[in-house]
Fold:
Amino acid sequence: MFVVRYEDLLDDAEGQARRLLRHLGVERSTAQIQAALRSQSFGVARERFLVAGDVARAKFLRAGRHGDWRGVLTTEQQVFCLSRFG
Structure:
């Protein structure tokens, strides 16, 4: 099993991508990894959804910041997530 924490992706996306690629036995250049990360950034993905008219998916992407959920989820939702997912 391969585990990637969201916080680790935010702190070091390129390092985590390299780790995943190594685990899968896939080789990619630094330029390819960086291009992939840029194309999947919150801003680029949000813009892509908006251009396609998919406002719901664009809104789903909120902020992409560590801990942002604490300001968005209700106390009940937070308790549920913490008890269910740790």
